[in-house]
Amino acid sequence: MATLDDVVAWLRDLAGTMKEHAAELTELDSAIGDADHGTNMARGTAAVAALLDESYDDAAALLKKAGMTLVSTVGGASGPLYGTFFLRMAGPLAGKEQIEAADLGAALRAGVEGIQQRGKAEAGDKTMYDAWAPALEAYDEAVSGGQDVGGSLRAAAEAAAEGRDGTEPLVARKGRASYLGDRSAGHLDPGAASTTLLLESAARTLG
Amino acid sequence: MIGLVLVSHSRALAEAAVELAGQMVAGDDGPRTRIAAGLDDGSLGTDAAAVADAVADADSGDGVLVLLDLGSAVLSAEMALELVDPDVAARTRLTAAPVVEGLVAATVAASVGGDLAAVAREAEQGLLAKREHLSPDGAPDAEPADGSSDDGPASADARTEVEVTAPHGLHARPAALLVRTLAGHDARVRVRNLTSGRGPVDGSSLSAVATLDARRGHRLELTASGPDAARVLEAVDDLAQHQFGDRPPPPTTPPTARGSGLDVAIGPAVVVDTSVDVSDYRAGDPDAEQQRLDGALRAATDQIGALAETADQSATAAILDAHRALLADPALLEPTRAAITSGSSAPEAWTATADEVHRRFAELPDAYQRARADDVREVRDRVLAALVGRPGTEAPRPDAGGILVVGTLDAARAAGLDPSSVGGVVTRRGGTTGHGVLIAQARGIPLLADVGDVAIHDGDLLAFDARTHRLLVRPDDDQRAELEQLIEARRHEREQAEAAAGDPVVLGDGSAVHVVANVGAATDANGLRESGADGIGLVRTEVLFADLPELPSVEQQTAAFLDLAGAVDGPVTIRTWDVGADKPLPFLAIAPEDNPFLGARGLRVFRTGPEPLVQQLQAVCRAAREAPVRVMFPMVSRPDEVDWALARLAEAGDREGGVPPGLAVGAMVEVPAAALRVAEVARRLSFVSIGTNDLTQYVMAAGRGNEAVQDLLDPADPAVLRLVALVCDEVGPGVDVAVCGDAASRPEVAARLVALGVRELSVSPPAIPLVKAALRGQ
């Protein structure tokens, strides 16, 4: 079970995580993209962290605000993608003070569906969806197995990391990396990497 | 005007592109162009919220085209559409057009008044010229499109020079007509603007022709090569002599094949199920589905093309043109393709998109625009039929005398019927004013509308009389004999009426009744002399010029009025602009109103800005010097409004060297207040014309177009007729009373109006012989 305070903690942790890993993400992006993913994510999540001192009715309200903030501050494709993720996540959580594992599962699913709709990516396109898809599956499986929010998120983060590693041999079919064609193979996808970081952060804070 | 938004990662890039595009248009003529580029801190990136703001800012109500560079620009722009007002989003389109070329082409297309589809099309074709130019295998256009070409007379087979006679220069419509004319010939034509020095450009490209900046009075040089070189230039000369089509075409084409017009039919039922069964459809992978969709769209376009070839009336052709445009409309195609990409089958994706577009049209407040929903549904079914391999949605052609039974009659099917062969049409629903019904009636096909879910089987003998709304399924011998007699009687009646149509109607007391025509589109005037019209009693100027993108000039209006005067031997009554929030025009926009029938409408519209009215009155003054033209003002309630209108006429006269002395001036009586005070209203006028459609809705407090109260909308209601009698009795000596509503077209009502003292009936052209016959019978 998680609360508004836990979500605040998550988003604060996320800002720190992105700052810490900014150089690493940008380096991944410099191999196959435009070398700004780390900077972009650090800037966007820092802007979200600046919202956390205000008060919110519920987690849904905060997540919405965070989504809009990411849209306007990230700059790259991850802006609308993560922005949509948080905006859509808010839907199933509206009015809930206590977020159960199943609620969060529904929220994650809604968020990921938003990402897929926005980016029109499929599994194997070498995008963040390659981390999200196995993570969602693992999360749901853990919930069915009786795991709580923390345990389910840990399972999701592990699956995301595997998904991220699985993007290495892939040839990108979406985004800036797709301009590189075959040369995009042999590198991790930066979006899948930031997704893994996001889920690891959630597992640390929402559990 | 369509607004433009440029979404880019880089503000510098966007600003430079906008500057470049701005050079294509003079001064403030360009579209509202907004930039959403870069982040607030100056770094590269895109911001969906900023895109949403830019879209809202660029929108003037006509629509917005969004051009975007790459990556997140696309995602941010798509997201922006979810953030703006849904109404604005509905008229906003994202285009895959190249940023620089697309922006230049879109700027030109928008500045000449193109609609969203036209502007988007131009933007998307922005790469064509460059691609052709650079194509290695010497494509036909592999030569410079700028002034550096030496493709002059030396290499051309023919050459001509024309003056740009279109009143507003070669803006989108005349330019499109020029391009279409050239495309119909086997010749390559290059066009140079001799006056401005621009060009030469390829005459087959609308964007390229638009870059010539050909204003009225400019001289164009056209050089042609190829087998049709001489002929194509003759066609261009002809076009120039007709203002490049920028005025209503002269009424020359007489109506051709016509049905019986008897409103009664007997024959075997041919029942058509227009729904398309897609349950056996086996979807392939997205690529295969996209290909099937393309094939179906091509097939549907071909079918409509074939129907248009044989269309015998320009109104029909115009509707088929609209269907063809829908088949290429990105608003239908883009969401369909996106859904297919996400895994939908072609029929699912197409149906969902078409239904959504249909819903949007069906919710529009304007009845005319709502009718576009029917067009969408017809196009939907046609494409679905093609997808499942059915040859078309055409009915099995009824044999001679067969009666088609359909759910609703769509325009394409109505156009495809052979009026000399089909016995009649029965519709189950859809009302009496849909496109298809109007087309069938205009072609004289007997039609019974809205019979509901009566059980009718293929081959059942049917008989109906539309005038009494009577339907007989499997009539017995007596009923059948009765209907056959009715047909005989009607035929005899019609023949007599037509034979005598040219004769005047003189009543027993020796007074004459003029039966004149209501005219909207210029083509309504076709064949008026043959039908016996004693003149034109109502020119709906707001319909006559409805398809122009901007206010027609005084010259243009004068010419159109004189064309109409040439189509009849009697007077022509021009009604000044009768617009309102219920029937706006592109160039006379009216803000939406809660209750448009009671709002700024007709004469009232011009109280705050009379210039369009004064200009129209100038055209009336000019035309009245050469032809028996009269003028009347719509939507008058009080006598002082007539005084105000007459002052505007005097103002127009001052600009034209005086109001012609014989000009007859009148007013519409459609507001009960004007009827009740008609003596005062008409004290400075020579005639009044009662608009029974509006008078009835105001007297009965029953809105036109509201199906729930249609039964109250009877122009022959005693209350309405009593007001007509009042007008006739009290109008004062020397003031003629006319009726120009639909009531006058009904022979039995016409006779009653004349009995009350009305001496001019303005009716729909096909009704003239019958109305005349009914009056003679009195």
TrEMBL record, chain A:
InterPro entries: DhaK_L_YcgS, DhaL_dom, DhaL_dom_sf, Dihydroxyacetone_Kinase
Residues annotated as domain DhaL: 5-204
Superkingdom, taxonomy of origin: Bacteria
A UniProt-annotated Pfam family: Dak2
Entry keyword Kinase: yes
The entry's keywords: Kinase, Transferase
GO MF assignments: kinase activity
Cross-referenced PANTHER family: TRIOKINASE/FMN CYCLASE, TRIOKINASE_FMN CYCLASE
NCBIfam families: dha_L_ycgS
Protein name: Dihydroxyacetone kinase subunit DhaL
Species this chain originates from: Luteipulveratus flavus
UniProtKB/TrEMBL annotation, chain B:
CDD domains (alphabetical): PTS-HPr_like
EC number: 2.7.1.121
Start and end residues of each HPr domain: 157-247
InterPro entries in the cross-refs: DhaM_N (IPR012844), HPr-like (IPR000032), HPr-like_sf (IPR035895), PEP-util_enz_mobile_dom (IPR008279), PEP-utilizing_PTS_enzyme (IPR050499), PEP_util_C (IPR000121), PEP_util_CS (IPR023151), Phosphohistidine_dom_sf (IPR036637)
Cofactor: Mg(2+)
Gene3D superfamilies referenced in this protein's UniProt entry, alphabetically: HPr-like, Phosphoenolpyruvate-binding domains, Phosphohistidine domain, Phosphotransferase system, mannose-type IIA component, PtsI, HPr-binding domain
Family: Belongs to the PEP-utilizing enzyme family.
Subunit (UniProt): Homodimer. The dihydroxyacetone kinase complex is composed of a homodimer of DhaM, a homodimer of DhaK and the subunit DhaL.
Record's function text: General (non sugar-specific) component of the phosphoenolpyruvate-dependent sugar phosphotransferase system (sugar PTS). This major carbohydrate active-transport system catalyzes the phosphorylation of incoming sugar substrates concomitantly with their translocation across the cell membrane. The phosphoryl group from phosphoenolpyruvate (PEP) is transferred to the phosphoryl carrier protein HPr by enzyme I. Phospho-HPr then transfers it to the PTS EIIA domain.
Protein name: Phosphocarrier protein HPr
Organism: Luteipulveratus flavus
Gene behind this protein: dhaM
